[in-house]
């Protein structure tokens, strides 16, 4: 599937600055394991098999000088590429796409060289197909059996592409499985051969005694070819971008550099010492070289080495070339369609173009000319790479600028002298091919042919409905029948053919059959059962991913619900405080005016009353014997009592108005509507005002004695806070404490309460962290264990219906924790009591919002 809704989480998209209407190809997900990238990193070492025997036949001992210089260049190239991979870990395609960054000031040269590098690898699958076909024919010649050459060449060319198109990662896994035995064999060939020549060969010397005339033209001609092989050991860089462990992959490139001298110098020295120069076949050259130390096992081991090496280098080429085109499309050097990648990692358009050119090379059929023409582009790429190193000599990208300049000169000379020595026509064709590919890419963007458009590939790989998919059971049965029939037929043919054949030939053919059948079997499975298995695995991963997404969404919904509840609480609290403040302010205002009038006039009433009583007393002294009518009136009103009671009445009225004024002041202080919302206040004053408002609930009644208040106030500074909200918290905690005490006293008699009085203790102090701590404790029944975890939850209450809303503690927690950056917690022992603790900073860092 390509860019399906399920695949977006695996791919990272970037905006395109040049064309807002298009989308960049996705960055590759890091799916390749270290073991898989190890195989691709070491696969380039096996290219020695295709070049060394031919160079040995042409140059003889001079071939060693070619290999020594080119190997030094190859080792330095690997280490330089490894360094660039650390700088560009997300660049796919490796060396040619690093070159485009080194030569970004010269985009035409960068594009030309990158396409040339791609062309160099395009010819590898058909060239190996010809080598494998010839190898099979060589082993069958002793028994006079001839195979259909064209069929086998096409089959071996298509095999790695079939695996790559399947999108099951089978190509990289199969490559990794066979690469270690192949590398092990080539190392064993070099180590055993060197040891045999050093310690056991009696008629041979380590250093050849014969001399050969030096030819610059011949030397450059084969350096031209050596570049094609020895420089190819850096292919691991192509897979850094989609490696799970890119650092390990880069270290494998350094490991391949270590193997280069052993294989290319020691191995070439061995075949120069042990194989005659008239041997032209790779198989015969290696068998002749290996027989002295491997004996009769040489044909078998060499067959396995050549077969596995050819198949593996073809797999490396197919995997490498598609990534080169992909990155070039990302960098806008070629048509965007080549950047299309399926969810399973299939570079379908890039693979299609590479397959087309591979088949063209196969139809051409001349291995030497194919290597010459496509190798020209590869050599141009290496020239551009070293040119980029010299161009960036003052930047961190370049490690050995002078060495790069030295090898650049050698490569330019090899291109001109060596290319002309091979064929000037082929040289010109090789130089023209990158332009032809660029022209083809440009034409694909101009022609409105559906497969040239990315949208066509999007639709092609859209997820299919279950009803549209092939029946799974039928597919497996048919695949099993095909594999059984193929295996039985091949086994029958091999058995009947090899009955009268020598054991050595039987073993070699068996190795070939095993390797070929292994690749064919995996190829069939890749297009039958493996996609189904992969689909099941993807469905499982998608299910797990969906479960994880649902879990995340559930958590987000729960968090949103909690935020919503908090917002509701905040609104309720704000509206409650606003309404309460306005009501309190209104009531206080309405009471305050008449009370002030009464309180202000009481002093005048007291004075006037005293004057009247003084006047009455003066009359009594002046007229001690009043008339009977007046005396009767005096007796009726009981003037002495009236005089005494009136004075006391006025004093009581004075106390009452003072009390009303204090209550009004407490209400105003509690609401704080006439002051700034945020300010430094006296916490103790707020506590006392709250106690005054709650005084009616603290006083004694006929059912219980008064609740005792114990004050243990510390020396507190003024505290920056929202005074009205802090008073509300103290009010909630004191009210809950009173409720708890009333509930605890419900089953106790008046006398029992007097013996163990209900008490609320209020204690304040300043902590070492400059926090004010307010502790409100009661000696009620405490909080039951079952409800402690829910105590601060919104709408949770243990009170009877109509007595509590479940918002008091939740709002209080919000006010302290969120508005004041403090803490509200409690400590309770069931049966003993509960203590709530408020902690807020004395100074807030900034004004809270």
UniProtKB/TrEMBL annotation:
EC number(s) given by UniProt: 2.7.13.3
Coiled coil (residue ranges): 536-567
UniProt entry keywords in alphabetical sequence: ATP-binding, Coiled coil, Kinase, Membrane, Nucleotide-binding, Phosphoprotein, Transferase, Transmembrane, Transmembrane helix, Two-component regulatory system
TM helices/strands, residue ranges: 61-81, 102-123, 143-165, 177-202, 222-240, 252-271, 300-326, 346-365, 371-391, 403-424, 473-495, 507-530
Catalytic activity: ATP + protein L-histidine = ADP + protein N-phospho-L-histidine
Entries under SMART domains matching the protein: HATPase_c, HisKA
InterPro entries: AA/rel_permease1, HATPase_C_sf, HATPase_dom, His_kinase_dom, HisK_dim/P_dom, HisK_dim/P_sf, Sig_transdc_His_kin-like_C
Pfam families associated with the record: AA_permease_2, HATPase_c
Matches recorded under CDD domains: HisKA (cd00082)
Superkingdom of the source species: Bacteria
EC top class named in words: transferase
Subcellular location, principal: membrane
Membrane topology qualifier: Multi-pass membrane protein
Protein name: histidine kinase
The organism's taxonomic lineage, starting at the top: Bacteria, Bacillati, Cyanobacteriota, Cyanophyceae, Leptolyngbyales
């Amino acid at each position: 599937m390509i860019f399906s809704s399920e695949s977006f989480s695996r791919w990272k998209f970037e905006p395109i600055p040049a064309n807002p209407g298009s989308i960049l190809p996705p960055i590759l997900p890091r799916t390749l394991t270290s073991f898989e990238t190890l195989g691709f990193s070491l696969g380039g070492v096996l290219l020695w098999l295709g070049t060394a025997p031919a160079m040995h036949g042409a140059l003889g001992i001079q071939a060693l000088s070619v290999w020594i210089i080119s190997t030094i260049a190859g080792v330095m190239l690997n280490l330089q590429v490894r360094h660039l991979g650390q700088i560009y870990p997300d660049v796919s395609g490796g060396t040619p796409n690093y070159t485009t960054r080194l030569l970004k000031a010269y985009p035409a040269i960068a594009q030309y060289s990158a396409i040339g590098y791609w062309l160099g690898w395009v010819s590898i699958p058909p060239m190996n197909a010809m080598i494998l076909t010839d190898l099979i024919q060589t082993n069958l010649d002793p028994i006079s059996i001839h195979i259909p050459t064209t069929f086998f060449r096409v089959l071996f060319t298509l095999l790695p592409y079939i695996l790559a198109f399947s999108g099951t990662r089978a190509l990289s896994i199969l490559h990794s499985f066979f690469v270690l035995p192949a590398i092990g064999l080539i190392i064993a060939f070099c180590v055993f051969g060197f040891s045999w020549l050093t310690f056991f060969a009696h008629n041979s010397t380590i250093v050849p005694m014969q001399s050969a005339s030096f030819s610059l033209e011949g030397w450059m001609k084969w350096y031209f070819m050596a570049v094609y092989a020895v420089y190819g050991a850096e292919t691991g860089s192509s897979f850094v971008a989609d490696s799970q462990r890119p650092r390990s992959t880069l270290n494998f490139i350094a490991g391949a550099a270590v193997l280069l001298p052993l294989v290319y110098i020691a191995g070439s020295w061995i075949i120069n010492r042990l194989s005659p120069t008239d041997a032209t076949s790779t198989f015969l050259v290696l068998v002749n070289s290996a027989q002295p130390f491997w004996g009769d096992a040489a044909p078998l081991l060499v067959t396995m080495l050549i077969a596995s090496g050819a198949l593996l280098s073809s797999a490396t080429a197919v995997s490498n070339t598609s990534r080169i085109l992909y990155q070039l499309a990302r960098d806008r050097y070629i048509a965007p369609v080549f950047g299309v990648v399926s969810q399973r990692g299939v570079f379908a358009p890039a693979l299609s173009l590479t397959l087309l050119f591979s088949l063209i090379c196969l139809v051409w059929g001349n291995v030497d000319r194919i290597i010459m023409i496509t190798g020209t582009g590869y050599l141009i790429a290496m020239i551009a790479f070293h040119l980029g190193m010299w161009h960036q000599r003052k930047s961190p990208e370049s490690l050995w600028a002078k060495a790069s300049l030295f090898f650049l000169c050698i490569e330019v000379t090899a291109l001109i002298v060596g290319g002309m020595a091979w064929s000037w026509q082929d040289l010109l064709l090789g130089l023209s091919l990158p332009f032809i590919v660029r022209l083809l890419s440009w034409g694909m963007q101009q022609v409105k042919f559906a497969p040239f458009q990315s949208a066509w590939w999007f639709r092609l790989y859209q997820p299919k409905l279950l009803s549209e998919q092939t029946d799974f059971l039928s597919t497996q049965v048919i695949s099993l029948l095909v594999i059984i029939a193929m295996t039985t037929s091949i086994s029958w043919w091999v058995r009947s053919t090899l009955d009268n054949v020598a054991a050595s030939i039987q073993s070699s053919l068996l190795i070939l059959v095993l390797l070929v059948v292994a690749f064919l079997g995996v190829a069939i499975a890749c297009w039958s059962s493996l996609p189904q298995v992969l689909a099941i695995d993807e469905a499982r991963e998608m299910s797990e991913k969906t479960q994880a997404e649902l879990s995340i969404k559930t958590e987000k919904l729960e968090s949103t619900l909690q935020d919503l509840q908090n917002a509701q609480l905040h609104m309720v609290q704000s509206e409650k405080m606003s309404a309460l403040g306005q009501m309190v302010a209104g009531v206080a205002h309405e009471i305050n005016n008449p009370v002030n009038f009464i309180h202000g006039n009481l002093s005048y009433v007291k004075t006037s009353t005293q004057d009247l009583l003084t006047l009455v007393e003066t009359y009594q002294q002046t007229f001690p014997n009043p008339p009977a009518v007046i005396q009767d009136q005096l007796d009726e009103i009981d003037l002495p009592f009236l005089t005494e009671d009136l004075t006391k009445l006025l004093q009581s009225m004075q106390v009452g108005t003072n009390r009303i004024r204090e209550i009004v002041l407490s209400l105003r202080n509690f609401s704080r509507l006439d002051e700034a919302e945020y300010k430094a206040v006296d916490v103790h004053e707020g506590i006392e005002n709250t106690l005054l408002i709650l005084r009616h609930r603290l006083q004694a009644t006929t059912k219980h004695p008064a609740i005792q208040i114990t004050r243990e106030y510390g020396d507190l500074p003024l505290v920056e806070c929202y005074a009205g909200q802090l008073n509300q918290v103290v009010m909630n905690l004191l009210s809950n404490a009173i409720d708890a005490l009333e509930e605890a006293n419900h089953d106790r008699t008046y006398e029992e309460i007097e013996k163990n009085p209900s008490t609320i203790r209020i204690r304040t102090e300043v902590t070492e962290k400059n926090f004010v701590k307010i502790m409100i404790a009661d000696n009620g029944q405490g909080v039951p264990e079952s409800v402690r975890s829910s105590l601060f939850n919104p709408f949770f209450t243990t009170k009877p219906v109509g007595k509590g809303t479940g918002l008091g503690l939740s709002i209080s927690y919000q006010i302290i924790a969120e508005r004041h950056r403090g803490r509200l917690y409690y400590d309770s022992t069931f049966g003993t009591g509960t203590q709530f603790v408020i902690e807020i900073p004395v100074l807030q860092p900034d004004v809270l919002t």
